[in-house]
Amino acid sequence: MARRGLRTPVPDVAALSSFLVSAVGLAVPLALAALGETVSQRAGVINIGLEGSVIWGALGGALGSLAGGGYAGLLAGALAGGAAALVFAVFAVRLNTDQIITGTAVTIGSLGFTGALYQSRFGVTGVALELETLPAWELPLLSRIPVVGPALFDQALTAYLVYVMVPLLAWLLFRTRWGLALRAVGESPEAAHAAGVPVVRTRMLAAVFAGLMAGLAGAHLSLVHTGTFAENMSAGKGFIAIAVVVLGRWRPAGVLAAALFFGGAEALQFALQAFDADLPYPLFLALPYVLSLAALAGWFGRSRAPEGLALPWPRRGH
Amino acid sequence: MSDQSGTPRVRADLRPALGAAAALLATMAIAAALLALGGHSPAVAFGALARGAFGSWHNFISVTLVQATPLLLTGLAVALAFKARVWNIGAEGQLHAGALAGVAVAVSVPASSAFLLLPATLLAAAAAGALWASVPAAMKTRMGVGEVITTLLMNFVALFLAQFLVHGPLRESRGVFNQTDAIPAAAQLPTLIPGFRLHLGFLIGILIAVALWLYLARTPGGFRIRAVGASPRAAEVSGRFRTTPVIWRAFLVSGAIAGLAGWIQVSGITHRMYEGLSPGWGYTAIAVALLARLHPLAAVLTAIVFGALSAGGGAMQREAGVPDVWVRGIEALVILAVLTVDRVLQTIDRRAARGSPRAAHSRA
Amino acid sequence: MTAAVSLRGVTKRFGALRALDAVDFELAPGEIHGLLGENGAGKTTLARVVAGLLAPDAGRVQIGGREVRLGSAAEARALGVAMVHQHFSLVPRFTGFENVALFNAEAWTPRGGVRDDYRGRIEARAAELRLPVQLDVPVERMGVADRQRIEILKALMGETRVLLLDEPTAVLAPQEVEGLFAVLRRVAAAGTGIVLVAHKLDEVLAAAGRVTVLRRGRWVLTREAGGVTARELADAMVGVGGVAAGLPGGGSVLAGQEAPAPAIVAELKDVSAASVSGAGLRGVSLAVRRGEILGIAGVGGNGQRTLASVLAGLQAPDAGEAVLPAEAGWIPQERDGEGLVNDFTIAENVALAVHAKGAYRRGPWLDWAEVEEAAAALVGEMDVRSGAPGVAAGTLSGGNQQKMVAGREFLRSGKLLVAESPTRGLDVKATVAVRERITALAKHGDRAPGIVLISTDLDEILELSDRIAVMVRGRLIPVPPEDHNPAAIGELMLGAGSRGGVRHQADARDRPGARETAG
Fold it and tell me: How sure is the predictor about B314, in pLDDT bands with cuts at 50, 70 and 90?
């Protein structure tokens, strides 16, 4: 059965183009959340609660959209994601509790409370919510580029946010005092502290920024990708974003590439599933995680997490 | 000697329990406030939850304890790892690996005797869980890669591997649903009490809890795990042993127990493996272990608490109209409450400790 | 002229310990001021108070004539105080340039970018100070001297009026030390006041214009470097005329040595061993007999740690022969985190040493009853106050913790006990108590272990030891009994080598007869 797929002629340009559209669409929420998480991890904070921010973003997006239209939804989604991350940061940074356990709690709680809020608002049966989706902005000329044009330049606002964020964050992180201080906090909070950088404040801000970005990612899911909200619709996107950060080696451009890779794997899986149910498509989905592990193991050269990642500050004596 | 040590020992033993109780109370208070805010009556909701979990023998034994079983096993896995300060958040993946290995053995080995097949499947599940944990273990001990990210990544690999197998090689022979064939009766764990769904797996969980407790409290090997968790440097200098083998042991045993959790669920309850076997037990396990203060025997209690939450959630929804997803929110509140209580206790400790000898001799 | 720094009556307590006790101190602009003292004398604490990193409990601090808020690092920075820590505060993965820029606000434009000319300014400053630095290499790939130069340059890029250096020479080779001092002289010549914290006398005398000696948190003296000898400073550091003067000379100790010699429990023959950090061992020979205390004096970082871990069996010698008991007790320098686990009970801390021993096992089980019995006995024998087997070690005072560790290490091995700065960080009462216990262990009759006492505290060595040797740059120099006095030992400790005269004198005097005494 699987053979049949191989014997078909090379997919035509239209098929390739629609695959790319789908891949980019799937990559956008991953990239948004992962770009935020990159900043957070660069400051030494690993936010496993990112998944929680994504689901809050999706619900916030839905509620905001019902109240004030799509762009209000986008804003509400970002704020909702940021609020979830603020809860995380108050515990994990301000109170200095364990980052991993706190993040896990925030994720579990967010999945629960978003579900509760959704059901109390729309009923337990959950009539499928119909949301106005954000329109795609077709950029003149650019969207006409063969094959990649429609995929890259006929997308909703969220995709363009990614395009702006990647160079912006790269510049901020690696070319500014602010970025140097933030990275110092993530590498060696002691040295950063000695240089006068406010470690706790920096970490709080970075964690909340990650939440805002993850909230945008969630809003993308409800307002661009599906036009509805469903419980658990984040479906692990927040966790995947953490893998994206690892595979992207904590650099915005790398993170974008890794997000496209993950998105591509997912799009390929959908394409194959529709095409031939017998192909081992779940293995395509597993591949990016395996590659992330390989990257950590140094198979593609040195790739190290920030030295101070997940470590408490101030240091706890034991 | 015993009269001399009596008083302080009682204090040392009671404090974690008191802390856990305080955390639970705080959680209930906050949950009540949130329920009220959401327009529900906390009393009605808690009442329905309690009845759903404990209201009848059926509810308690066939629902609560059945729900508690995978939570107990994964909770023990997490507790042991955390005891050695190994942050294994990969119980979810190890659980899937174990379930797959158990099913694979059960459906492929043509043995009809439960005395052969059950031990073989349990062994396979434990081995698979340990194998799944060995990847992060190797990366931590050989390459210095932190286990938090690696165990998390391994979870997804396991989920997709499970998805692949139930869609493909292990798919049921009818070819209707994406699930495995039913396992033969010889591979099914027997129920404990006629008429109730509770199965031998719960007993296995309690046995493992007792064994782990004895191991940690009474054996040199368990003592080393605790020493590494308390202070790796002191373990090397004053304990005169290498920490790497101890860390490996924590990873492997933790993975094996989590692997058992997955297979025991299949063998005792579902009898088939399918996608979405676990609703996130491997993550809830962190709450179970934490509330138990990483104590294996206490984990039996806390697993029942969380089993009751999930069992009572349904009743809460039916009787009080409170969506059962509240239960997940309450789980999260428990974790945050435990963390907060811990910080408060630590702060009190630090205030109580006389002066700061640490600061004095590190900066002379 | 306004003093660059002025301290009046500064007191800083850590628990019961007075790290600084009503200390006055003055630093003039453009001077290099050596701050001397043994470990624990309060030198680093004083420097950290000036840098605003510690708030003193009492006293006043003025910088450039202005009264400053106590414990405000930001204010100290703003007034031009910079500190080079013993453990550098550099971000390992950042390049030299990034580390310098991180620390200096003037590297940045208001919009957050690096100033175009800043790199040029760093290079110019480095050239001016004749400080060769690697700006584009990550710090983690630099040698320790290169890192130190980055740290110094980092501190000197701004308007630095006061430069505090904490033990800057401890990590440097002799030829590097001279280079550092040349830089410091240039910096001082430009008007910056420099505090040079050190415990090597000869180095301080070579670099400093004035020296101040602290001892046990108290000010002892301040002199012009030209008007004081190394001998006088050594006496001031170790407190001749104080406690040590009241001790008997070599006489009684000598008598002990002539008694019929008990069995040798540990012996090193020409042992050399490398060290990860600090000095290793170079051709060290020694023998320890039952019931004696062999005191190893010396300035910290001269190979004592390596000696301890070789004797304890944790490190094999690279060359030479070590005849050691199967297990040796070791009271490590750091109690918290090495010697004991705060969260463990006393019984559990005892179990750290005995959990693998057959006597404390019953089948596969650890015999806690046996361990608790041993712990209870230990608590009584070592006089661990408010201790019981079930009490958490973290609740004990430092002195009682140390007594517990000493007792446990004796329990581990009745043959050889290595005590590494056992009274470091303890107050006077606890110090006396711990010393009493160690002496008592050595008088355990037939069961008495041989004790190697490694300490930077000369009082302690003189008070407790039957025989004494001095550790200098990885070598062990025996001290003949007639030289068992602070002056003679202090001279040997001076850091022989760079001040050739002293060293040769000491060696020449040591050689005859001394070899056998320690060997």
Answer: confident
pLDDT band at B175 (very low <50, low <70, confident <90, very high): confident
* Nearest CA-CA distance, residue C146 and chain A, Å: 17
The model's pLDDT over A260-312, given as tens digits with 9 standing for 90+, comes to 999 998 888 777 777 766 677 788 888 888 988 888 887 776 677 898 888 88
State whether residue A43 sits within 8 Å of chain C by CB.
Answer: no
Q: What's the 3-state SS for C305-357?
A: HHHHHHHCCCCCCCEEEEECCCCCEEECCCCECCCECCCCEHHHHHHHHHCCC
Q: Does domain C248-328+415-519 have CATH number 3.40.50.720?
A: no
- Domain of B297, CATH number, reads 1.10.3470
Q: With pLDDT > 70 as the criterion, what percentage of chain B qualifies?
A: 92
Is position B336 within any domain? no
> What would the mean pLDDT of C491-508 be, rounded to a whole number?
46
Contact C91 A197 (CB under 8 A): no
Output the six-digit token pair for A243.
Answer: 């893998």
Chain B residues inside the 8 Å CB shell of A111: 325, 328
CB contact under 8 A, C392 and B5: no
Q: Would an 8 Å CB–CB cutoff place B234 in contact with chain C?
A: yes
Q: For domain C5-238, is the CATH number 3.40.109.10?
A: no
In 3D space, the residue among A258, A245, A260, A251 whose CA is nearest the CA of residue A310 turns out to be: A245
| CA distance to partner chain C, nearest, from residue B28 (Å) | 30
Give B-chain residues touching C332 at CB under 8 angstroms.
237-238
CB–CB contact B238 C389 (8 Å) = no
Range of the domain at B150: 67-314
Picking from A177, A178, A202, A251 by the largest number of C CB atoms within 10 A of its own CB, the best residue to mutate is A177
Structural domain includes residue B228: yes
- Tokens of residue A263, six digits: 């998105």
* CB contact C342 to A (< 8 Å): yes
Residue ranges per structural domain of chain C: 5-238, 248-328+415-519, 337-412
Say what the pLDDT of residue A302 is: 66
Does B350 reach chain C within 8 Å, measured CB to CB? no
The beta-carbon neighbor of A180 closest among C74, C85, C98 is: C98
What is the per-residue burial (b if ≥16 Cβ within 10 Å, else e) of B187-222?
A: bbbebbeeebebbbbbebbbebbeebbebbbebbeb
* Contact of A151 with A21, CB cutoff 8 Å: yes
Among the partner-chain residues B323, B335, B340, the one whose CB lies closest to the CB of A116 is B323
Mean pLDDT of chain C, nearest integer: 84
B12 is a domain residue = no
- The amino acid sitting at C278 is G
For residue range A30-45, what is the model confidence (pLDDT) as tens digits?
A: 999 999 999 999 999 9
